[in-house]
Amino acid sequence: MTYRSEVEAADALKQAYHTIRAEIGKIIIGQDEVVKSVLISIFSNGHCLLVGVPGLAKTLLVQTVAQVLDLNFNRVQFTPDLMPSDIIGSEILGEDRNFKFIRGPIFANIILADEINRTPPKTQAALLEAMQEKAVTAAGVTHKLEQPFFVLATQNPIEQEGTYPLPEAQLDRFMFNVALNYPTFAEELQVVKNTTTTNQVQVNKVLNAEQIVFFQQLVRNIPVTDHVLEYAVRLVGKTRPQGELATPQVKRLLNWGAGPRASQYLVLGAKCHAVISGKYSPDIEDVQAVAKPILRHRIVRSYHAEAEGLSTDQIIEQLF
Question: Concatenated DSSP letters for the chain?
Answer without folding.
Answer: ---SSHHHHHHHHHHHHHHHHHHHHTTS-S-HHHHHHHHHHHHTT--EEEE--TTSSHHHHHHHHHHHTT--EEEEE--TT--HHHHHEEEEE-TTS-EEEEE-TTSSSEEEEETGGGS-HHHHHHHHHHHHHSEEEETTEEEEPPSS-EEEEEE-SS--TT--PPPHHHHTT-SEEEE--PPPHHHHHHHHHHHSSS----------HHHHHHHHHHHHHS---HHHHHHHHHHHHTT-TTSTT--HHHHHHEEE---HHHHHHHHHHHHHHHHHTT-SS--HHHHHHHHHHHHTTT-EE-HHHHHTT--HHHHHHHH-
